[in-house]
Amino acid sequence: MPSEHAPETIEGWYALHQIFTVDRAALRAEAPSSLEYMRDRAAVALGELASPGVEGWSAVVPLVGSSADVMLLHFRASLDELGEAQRRVAREPLFDLLRPLYTFLSVTEAGLYTATAQLAAEAATRGGALGDATYAEQMSQRVDAERASAHVKRRLFPPLPSEMPYVSFYPMSKRRDAQQNWYTLPLEERSRMMQAHGLTGRRYAGRVVQIITGAIGLDAWEWGVTLFARDPLDFKKLVTDMRFDEVSAKYAEFGDFYVGRVCPPDEWVASLP
Amino acid sequence: MPSEHAPETIEGWYALHQIFTVDRAALRAEAPSSLEYMRDRAAVALGELASPGVEGWSAVVPLVGSSADVMLLHFRASLDELGEAQRRVAREPLFDLLRPLYTFLSVTEAGLYTATAQLAAEAATRGGALGDATYAEQMSQRVDAERASAHVKRRLFPPLPSEMPYVSFYPMSKRRDAQQNWYTLPLEERSRMMQAHGLTGRRYAGRVVQIITGAIGLDAWEWGVTLFARDPLDFKKLVTDMRFDEVSAKYAEFGDFYVGRVCPPDEWVASLP
Amino acid sequence: MPSEHAPETIEGWYALHQIFTVDRAALRAEAPSSLEYMRDRAAVALGELASPGVEGWSAVVPLVGSSADVMLLHFRASLDELGEAQRRVAREPLFDLLRPLYTFLSVTEAGLYTATAQLAAEAATRGGALGDATYAEQMSQRVDAERASAHVKRRLFPPLPSEMPYVSFYPMSKRRDAQQNWYTLPLEERSRMMQAHGLTGRRYAGRVVQIITGAIGLDAWEWGVTLFARDPLDFKKLVTDMRFDEVSAKYAEFGDFYVGRVCPPDEWVASLP
Amino acid sequence: MPSEHAPETIEGWYALHQIFTVDRAALRAEAPSSLEYMRDRAAVALGELASPGVEGWSAVVPLVGSSADVMLLHFRASLDELGEAQRRVAREPLFDLLRPLYTFLSVTEAGLYTATAQLAAEAATRGGALGDATYAEQMSQRVDAERASAHVKRRLFPPLPSEMPYVSFYPMSKRRDAQQNWYTLPLEERSRMMQAHGLTGRRYAGRVVQIITGAIGLDAWEWGVTLFARDPLDFKKLVTDMRFDEVSAKYAEFGDFYVGRVCPPDEWVASLP
Amino acid sequence: MPSEHAPETIEGWYALHQIFTVDRAALRAEAPSSLEYMRDRAAVALGELASPGVEGWSAVVPLVGSSADVMLLHFRASLDELGEAQRRVAREPLFDLLRPLYTFLSVTEAGLYTATAQLAAEAATRGGALGDATYAEQMSQRVDAERASAHVKRRLFPPLPSEMPYVSFYPMSKRRDAQQNWYTLPLEERSRMMQAHGLTGRRYAGRVVQIITGAIGLDAWEWGVTLFARDPLDFKKLVTDMRFDEVSAKYAEFGDFYVGRVCPPDEWVASLP
């Protein structure tokens, strides 16, 4: 049995999700002047990270209904710049009074399942193989075309969705059990399921924006899903609908969920005790 | 194989379960005057949360037989108001001396399995499909009728059951294994099992009140079950009977259980060392 | 497929297992007079809990070969009285220097599998059903007879076994896998396996005493097993034999094991640094 | 389906594995005189435990390549004497500056699979049954003979292997899955696999010494394996070979591994900061 | 069913991966002179470990996108020398202000699957068996030849790849489920899958360097994979491609992933607060 083929993917910004709890007792134990100093510079730092001099952005998402208190989102063009954002946060004395609870490293991803399946089928028709010279040339053209499309650009270099302040983030992986193994399914079958799954998401267009990030080779979980919505009830509606999609029902494993509402950095800093 | 359909659901109040342990050594280390100040304002805060100016309520449930010490329950009309209740608790210095052990975010839910299965069957009879215009119109009428019914109102906007002071809370999910996958079962089969499951609950009418909250898209667990009883032995009797229901025996996964007895906020605060 | 039936059960005392580690550094850091004060009142409190004015008893079990240091056992007639015992322990300043590691809430239980299976078979013979009026009346008589028997009384209201100072406690559940699901087995099959399992236990009569407590609806684990023995090697012999019983081999899941030796409260308090 | 039979076993010394991490910051924070006092008496205590006035021995094994720092091994003739050794360690102030990470309670065990299978076969031939009077008498003679053999004595009362300073310890259990269940296999099949497994071990005679301890009824894991070797690479070679043995490949579950090198107590104490 | 055979392996340097979090609050609480003292000597110690007087090397890898902050890599010729490197780090007061989060002990390994399968096939052809005298002699020659080859030397005694500063480390094991059990597969089948897996790695030659270390008998995970790349996106590309290899898709279990960038010791020390 030959191994199955990975779909072609295009990557954009590196992404970092940082989830913290606040040590309120420690905050309250600080002298007012010391705390004010910490707050002021943290607000400046988070503000600069939100609109860095380089590509990308950061956002502050106070959490609701979680044991954690706040999630920071960072998108940057390179791993080094992402590391710089992370170190910038770590240098802030205010963050000595927060404890990191969970951290997720990934990179924005557009999966070209349909294109991969089409070109593989064409290769079979012409007696060639997935990965041969003709396939490689055709795929290279497709990748260039996709990269240039506005739709793919929005997925690889996503803006912070305005007027959709609610956020739900969760990591996920595809199952590799003996009887339900995503990684041994034929390419066409995976392509078909991903296409149907995409239609479920499209029914929520205008109500929910999804940022999909890939983490294979970078994290124990394989993907991150960061949802933005106008109404948080749409997280429940969308994720429920998706859980009945064949690809999720049979092949998805989910991590923890973190729900919150985007907040200007200075407002969040001011809300701390 | 097409994906199966989610049942129609109606949602009401957002719900937050907060479970804390008390750091008794820290409490005892506080100066009496400081502790009294903390207690007094915490009693006021919890009292105001219990009967907030807005829709909903909060309750204090000291736990028995758990490593945790107390559970707070909050029901509110919006995620923002729920977040406000959570921040109100966090602002109390007394809660610096408690440690959050577990937190669960969900929203009250009435699942319309029977209606969904009926309208889907009718759609099939008339040659239509679940989700087509006729179906959507019929479902919209059913949802409106259900929302208006006293029975559904009690499920979406549940009062704190008086004379049923004992509480048992646990989160749960439906199984998605290769051989026992709730999310790949046909709608009618799920509808049949949920109906039988409901009958088990009804045998305990007048003895146990159930609040069912949905958490898909909001939490790693998919549902929360909050039981209230006159006699705590009925938790054992009811949950045992339900565990033999086909839907639980084959498709339910359970989290931890938290058992306690509702207590006026000021009494609980006074009981701390 | 109809759901299977739960066996009839009779319950007695509520039970609480509390497992603690001792913070020896904190104990040694206390001033001698303060420590003596703590010790003295803790010895008094534990002594009073051992022989409370109400029904039931408590015991102190220093552990051997565990990361935890001591287990407290409490049996009381009601959940409220059990909660009172728990709060009595929590009020002791000495217990600020111990950390709770594990806690298990349950209630003594006698399962009437044989009676349930017999009456169900009779009901089938007479064309009736498990749970109909005749069955209910017959079962009610059986329950009354069982409750009055010395054998069942010892299971529901167990004395602290004298001359059997060694203790082994572990929680357990019945498996609910697709291929090995206790909760979908026919009543007669479960009854047969439980009867055979009981015979294994009876071979150790006079050497090992078992207290079985049920925890469905109260705890994540479904049962607690508290063994008392004259010779701790009998824990190994008995549990090994039982692990080969069909009911355990195929359907049992086990939690952690805690082994120790019952000790008078004042001796245990005196043994602390 | 009748339950399968447990093999006869003979037990010897009780065993305790204690694994600690060192709180180096706390050690360095101690005044030099206080630290010297702690070190001196700890060296004395560990030295006395190594060669106690009673049967058995203890050893100090500083760990390499583990988050933990040191493992103490204790073998004693009774659970009470083992508990005394544990309390002796706990009484040392130096151990207030170490944190227990893992603890494993067990008892040395020689499993008589071959004898059990033989006598069971003979019983079947003569129309009797495993456990009948003839079987019991024959087994009693076999147990006596085994107990008297030098080979079994070395397994039940193992000396600390000299010239084999490297140690690898891990707990393990036998699998009880629906499709791979050790506890439902016929006695002869288990006997056959254990015999083959023993041959793998014998190929390492003179290079690796194994101490097998049983923990059913005492610990969540069912057995402990403590290996001693002249060359630590033999741990990798032996355990790899064994992992391909049918009994391990299909039926073994492993816990964490702890690797180190035996060290005289006073040298270890002197090596602390 | 006879047990399957382990492949012949050759081992080289022992390896230790140490992963730490930095306690920034504790660092900032140190007096500047004390901190400078700690930094200076830690920089010296890490510099000496990087180029020790003995065989092997160490490296400092600050992590990006992880809850941990830094990974230390150590390669040494013996377990004792590896232990000495570990103790050298532990003696540094600066490391009192870091907390060990994860530690992995292993040894570089070259698996001779192809040679083992070939010689086993030849043995079968000549009517002999894997492990007989002829096989042993032939294998001994093959091992000597492999050990002498530059390719195998690079795998057993790997230099720190220059111009490939990015690192991704993760532990892994082979699956032992009833339906997907690596350890019960015939040798030829394992050999075939490992060969195909090797081809995937070779497609990344010049872009990604892999160090494979074996940990059976030393750690709960069976292997460690330490990848070095010029472009961190190649971690995602390579590991994704490999996840579709039959050997990974069906038989691999993965631990956590740690991603970072190699940094001179003194630069890392200087970057701390």
Describe this structure in words.
The structure is a homopentamer. With about 270 residues, chain A is an alpha+beta fold. The first copy, chain A, contains ten helices and nine strands. The first copy, chain A, has helices at about 25-30, 30-50, 80-90, 115-125, 135-150, 150-155, 185-200, 235-245, 245-250, 265-270, and strands at about 10-20, 55-60, 70-75, 100-110, 165-175, 210-215, 225-230, 250-255, 260. In chain A, helix 4 (about 115-125) runs antiparallel to helix 5. The longest helix of chain A is centred in the first third of the chain and has 19 residues, at about 30-50. The interface of B and C includes residues 67, 178 and 233 of B.
Tell me the layout of helices and strands.
Five copies of one chain form a homopentamer.
Chain A: E1 8-22, H1 24-29, H2 32-50, E2 57-62, E3 70-76, H3 79-91, E4 98-112, H4 113-125, H5 133-148, H6 150-156, E5 166-174, H7 187-202, E6 208-214, E7 223-229, H8 233-243, H9 246-251, E8 252-254, E9 258-261, H10 265-271
Antiparallel strand pairs in A: 1-3, 1-4, 2-3, 4-6, 5-7, 5-8, 5-9, 6-7
Short note summarizing the structure:
The structure is a homopentamer of 273-residue chains. Helices cover 42% and strands 27% of the residues of chain A. Chain A has 273 residues and is an alpha+beta fold.
